[in-house]
């Protein structure tokens, strides 16, 4: 691998992508630096490079000027790439005059800020005719001097070169985010809301949309992503090791917008850093933080522990009250009624045949002090006639027939019609349906699903060009969120996408039900947790969710301690109606009771790593920092020889055996907290500093509270020991250190 890597670095230094550029006066230098990295853009040649300033190694290179694959008036498909006519640099702003041969002229405005480059505006003025754009590209050029010609029916090719790529959750079953350049072959990786309909490897809800991709090597990474919600379907397109961003329009099928001038606001943002995760973090930092409510009550509801009925309903076991009775033992705060609670998908009306006591069941749940949530599709609709929708309100295919979709786009699978937000009647239906649900059921949470399951532009598109591409799902979700909050501003909108562009719409992001992680659940959940943590600074609560298997739950719960909000889609019984072991329920109870109630934080990795070209992300010991650096939650897994700071198991002056979670119950750090929860995830002991000698320690399990006696305090350190038998009968300990 070292030899391959070194050879690849030499190739990157020696190779360049040929671009046809018109003669132009001397153009200003455009650079951005971060740590030991420098990003340069030669405008005349349209060649950008990311290099290490000391080693000289080139981690990434390619072009950045936009190009179009379009259809002309004779229905011929043509390619035109922008060439620079002139460029003016004014401080941190660069204005580039462009020409697209055969199409027209335009300009690109680029800003160089603290977090990187921002393509704030791209404008095009068509001269002879308005082209029908099939695809727009960043990072594509004409093929010149190729030794190998892959199967590619275009006269141009992607030209971004790097040793590796990183796209969070690009592949599922099992999850993979890091790839060497030659691992992809010829691949489309949907970065937005279009999954299987784009021919991309299947991946369900989380983490779509991401709307960015990383490229580089272990010396440095570049992230290129959208700066605003694209009016096209956005993908990372890989062709024989080389990549580009593709924006799929297919205006040959659906027609272009009117007018000779076209403008793209905030087309792209570019960031660099030494790791892929930190490079992503710089991209996120280019977006302003969206203010979330700071009131304790609203945050409590935003970060609530959620139990989802899908754990039983996936087996077609629909009685609600037994699930509520079971859930009560673990003190969950919200019970979400999942699919299929509706009379038909998307109707917003309860199925009183399947649930004849629906409203009585909801009252039964609330009598337990538990709030209710509902599942809803973002764009699917089954019984259009019953919902008052007709052909003009739906996405149509190229033959003018209503376009249907499903989760995996199985041609013969059960499918649903797709609403077109271009229709005023669709807008009104979504608003009225949501308001009715809010007033009729009064949900605390609305779980929005299947935004990734809409037809791609190859299949169908909204009639209004301004609502096409990634904007369609955004518009649908925005309408639902606005309608819900018009009735109850405190309602929690739960989604799955981690794009910073979705932050204004989302109060709670869930890691889904882990079905896509398949047989490698713990590693996959660790990887997903690393990517979810990118939202930590934006006031969006994160639910760790669960898998379907109680025996694997503890590994997922450990990560949920740091993420914040525990969620579950677990069954309320084992195989053949056997009861769930109390040991499993105890761990859920502890995290439900004591999880963090705040939504803004940042991770501390300790001996964990966020992945690189040598391996995927791996979480071992990691923590949650809040309020300027207070360590409010900490997960401790067994260390390997040589990993500890001072020998043995030692992190933050804590020694332990087994696996543990510590959670501050106020906003102070664990060592200074007036109350700290201590949760064992295996038999063993833990010893850590506390501000004062504990005034009392409560042991908790599903049967209640008891005074704990298996602890000592000496030299400022509290030691708690848990035997095998005690572990099976203990949820956790609440340590009080204030009088």
Automatic annotation (TrEMBL):
The keyword Cell cycle does not apply. GO terms for molecular function: alpha-galactosidase activity. Keywords: Signal. It comes from the Bacteria. Residues 1-23 form the signal peptide. PANTHER family: GLYCOSIDASE FAMILY 31 (PTHR43053). This is Alpha-galactosidase.
């Amino acid at each position: 691998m070292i030899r391959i890597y070194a050879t690849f670095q030499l190739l990157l230094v020696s190779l360049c992508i040929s671009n046809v550029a018109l003669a132009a006066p001397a153009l200003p230098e455009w650079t951005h630096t971060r740590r030991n990295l420098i990003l340069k853009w030669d405008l005349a040649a349209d060649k950008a490079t990311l290099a290490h300033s000391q080693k000289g190694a080139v981690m990434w290179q390619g072009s950045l000027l936009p190009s179009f694959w379009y259809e002309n008036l004779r229905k011929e498909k043509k390619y035109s790439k922008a060439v620079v006519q002139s460029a003016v640099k004014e401080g941190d702003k660069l204005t580039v005059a462009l020409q697209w041969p055969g199409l027209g002229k335009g300009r690109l405005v680029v800003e160089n800020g603290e977090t990187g480059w921002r393509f704030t505006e791209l404008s095009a003025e068509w001269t002879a005719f308005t082209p029908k754009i099939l695809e727009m590209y960043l990072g594509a050029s004409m093929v010149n001097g190729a030794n190998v010609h892959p199967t590619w029916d275009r006269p141009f090719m992607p030209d971004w070169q790097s040793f590796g790529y990183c796209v969070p959750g690009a592949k599922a079953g099992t999850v993979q985010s890091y790839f060497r350049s030659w691992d992809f072959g010829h691949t489309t990786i949907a970065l937005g809301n279009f999954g299987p309909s784009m021919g991309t490897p299947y991946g369900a809800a989380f983490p779509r949309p991401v709307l960015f991709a990383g490229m580089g090597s272990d010396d440095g990474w570049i992230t290129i992503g959208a700066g605003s919600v694209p009016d096209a379907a956005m993908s990372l397109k890989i062709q024989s090791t080389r990549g580009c961003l593709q924006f799929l329009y297919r205006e040959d099928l659906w027609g272009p917008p009117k007018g000779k001038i076209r403008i793209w606001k905030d087309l792209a943002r570019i960031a660099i850093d030494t790791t892929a995760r930190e490079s992503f973090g710089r991209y996120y930092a280019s977006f302003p933080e969206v203010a979330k409510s700071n009131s304790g009550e609203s945050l409590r509801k935003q970060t609530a522990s959620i139990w989802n009925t899908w754990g039983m309903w996936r087996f077609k076991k629909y009685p609600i009250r037994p699930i509520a009775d079971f859930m009560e033992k673990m003190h969950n705060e919200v019970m979400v009624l999942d699919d299929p609670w509706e009379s038909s998908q998307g109707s917003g009306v309860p199925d009183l045949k399947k649930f004849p006591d629906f409203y009585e069941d909801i009252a039964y749940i609330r009598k337990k002090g538990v709030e209710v949530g509902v599942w809803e599709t973002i764009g699917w609709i089954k019984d259009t006639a019953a919902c008052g929708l007709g052909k003009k309100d739906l996405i149509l295919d190229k033959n003018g027939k209503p376009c249907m979709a499903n989760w995996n786009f199985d041609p013969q699978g059960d499918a649903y019609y797709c609403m077109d937000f271009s229709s005023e009647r669709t807008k009104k239906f979504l608003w009225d349906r949501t308001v009715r649900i809010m007033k009729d059921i009064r949900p605390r949470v609305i779980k929005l699903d299947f935004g990734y399951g809409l037809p791609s532009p190859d299949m169908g598109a909204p009639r209004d060009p301004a609502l096409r591409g990634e904007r369609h799902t955004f518009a649908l979700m925005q309408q639902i969120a606005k309608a819900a909050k018009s009735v109850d501003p405190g309602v929690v909108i739960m989604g799955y996408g981690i794009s910073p562009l979705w932050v204004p719409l989302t109060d709670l992001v869930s890691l889904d039900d882990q079905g896509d992680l398949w047989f490698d659940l713990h590693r996959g959940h660790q990887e997903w947790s690393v990517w979810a943590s990118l939202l930590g600074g934006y006031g969006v609560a994160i639910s760790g969710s669960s898998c379907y298997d109680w025996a694997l739950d503890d590994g997922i719960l450990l990560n949920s301690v740091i993420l914040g909000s525990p969620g579950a889609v677990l069954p309320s019984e084992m195989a053949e109606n056997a009861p769930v072991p109390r040991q499993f329920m105890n761990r859920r109870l502890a995290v439900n009771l004591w999880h963090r109630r705040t939504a803004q934080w940042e991770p501390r990795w300790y001996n964990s790593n966020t992945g690189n070209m040598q391996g995927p992300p791996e979480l071992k010991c990691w923590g949650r920092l809040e309020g300027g650096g207070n360590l409010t939650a900490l997960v401790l897994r067994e260390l390997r020889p040589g990993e500890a700071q001072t020998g043995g198991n030692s992190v933050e002056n804590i020694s332990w055996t087994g696996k543990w979670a510590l959670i501050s119950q106020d906003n102070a750090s664990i060592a200074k907290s007036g109350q700290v929860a201590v949760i064992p995830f295996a038999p063993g002991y833990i010893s850590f500093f506390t501000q004062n000698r504990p005034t009392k320690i409560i042991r908790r399990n599903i049967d209640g509270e008891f005074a704990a006696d298996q602890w000592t305090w000496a030299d400022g350190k509290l030691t708690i020991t848990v035997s095998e038998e005690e572990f099976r009968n203990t949820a956790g300990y609440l340590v009080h250190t204030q009088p």
